[in-house]
């Protein structure tokens, strides 16, 4: 079955540094991967989508990469701020109507 | 959050109660979803509706009953729930299925 794996351990970084989060998937490469942000007790918010034929995608301080050889996506936040503290979810389509989500990685940015 | 709204935001119910969760999307989307999110677990897809037709039913117990009267509204009817059903229930919508999803704020459900 298809899986999405994210580092379950929280990531603690200092303000101003770059945060890098990892998403690994199994089986065949999806047509695209998505990244969402979720704050405690709230619904996820869509951030970025990267397609299979795109190596890299950027949006302001965010950058996502997609490596079909490693079956991995990396999510970077540059010049991180305390307001970036949240849980970040990776998601993939399974080929049908389903999208499966990873458990998320909790990011803490210290001032 | 004004794109997808959910009511109530918090719900406490006994195991014998019947209640309903409501979701409304104001984005003109064609697909709507129900997810369950338990602590430290990935989102679990429960149901998917596309153009008001149920297209995915992810082995959900019959004590959860979805209803989609039109493309803007989605309900989740609850009856004789168990304490392990306590979780955050999230509604989402998207233009197509599958597609980028826009989530509501969720309903925090506690079953006593």
Short description:
The complex is a heterodimer of chains A (111) and B (112). Chain A has 111 residues and is mainly β.
Description:
The complex is a heterodimer of chains A (111) and B (112). Helix content of chain A is 0%, strand content 55%. Chain A has strands spanning 4-6, 11-14, 19-25, 32-38, 45-51, 56-59, 62-67, 72-77, 86-93, 99-101, 105-110. In chain A, strands 2, 4, 5, 9, 10 and 11 form a six-stranded mixed beta sheet that branches. A five-stranded antiparallel beta sheet of chain A has the order 1-3-8-7-6, with no helix packed on it. In chain A, β6 and β7 (62-67) form a beta hairpin. Chain A is globular. The model of chain A has no long low-confidence stretch (mean pLDDT 92). In chain B, the strands form two sheets. In chain B, strands 2, 4, 5, 6, 9, 10 and 11 form a seven-stranded mixed beta sheet that branches. A four-stranded antiparallel beta sheet of chain B has the order 1-3-8-7, with no helix packed on it. Chain B is globular, with a radius of gyration of 13 Å.
Question: How are the SSEs ordered, and which strands pair?
Answer:
The complex is a heterodimer of chains A (111) and B (112).
Chain A: E1 4-6, E2 11-14, E3 19-25, E4 32-38, E5 45-51, E6 56-59, E7 62-67, E8 72-77, E9 86-93, E10 99-101, E11 105-110
Chain B: E1 4-7, E2 10-13, E3 18-25, E4 31-37, E5 44-50, E6 53-57, E7 64-70, E8 73-79, E9 87-94, E10 102-103, E11 107-111
Q: Which features characterize this protein?
A:
heterodimer, A: 111 residues, mainly beta, 6-stranded mixed sheet, 5-stranded antiparallel sheet, 11 strands, 0% helix, 55% strand, globular, B: 112 residues, 7-stranded mixed sheet, 4-stranded antiparallel sheet, 57% strand
């Amino acid at each position: 079955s298809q899986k999405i794996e994210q580092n379950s351990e929280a990531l603690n970084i200092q303000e101003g540094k770059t945060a890098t989060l990892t998403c690994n998937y199994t089986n065949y490469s999806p047509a695209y991967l998505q990244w969402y942000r979720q704050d405690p007790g709230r619904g996820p918010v869509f951030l970025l989508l990267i397609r299979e034929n795109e190596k890299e995608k950027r949006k302001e301080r965010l950058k996502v990469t997609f490596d079909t050889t490693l079956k991995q996506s990396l999510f970077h936040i540059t010049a991180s701020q305390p307001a970036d503290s949240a849980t970040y979810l990776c998601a993939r389509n399974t080929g049908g109507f389903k999208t499966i989500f990873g458990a998320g990685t909790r990011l803490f940015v210290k001032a | 959050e004004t794109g997808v709204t959910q009511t109530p935001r918090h719900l406490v119910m006994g195991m014998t109660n019947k209640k309903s969760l409501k979701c409304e999307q104001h984005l003109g989307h064609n697909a709507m979803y129900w997810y369950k999110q338990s602590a430290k677990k990935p989102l679990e897809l429960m149901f998917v509706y596309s153009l008001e037709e149920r297209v995915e039913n992810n082995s959900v117990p019959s004590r959860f009953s979805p209803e989609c009267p039109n493309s803007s509204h989605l309900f989740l009817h609850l009856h004789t729930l168990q304490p392990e059903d306590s979780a955050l229930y999230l509604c989402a919508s998207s233009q197509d299925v599958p597609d980028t999803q826009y989530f509501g704020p969720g309903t925090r459900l506690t079953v006593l």
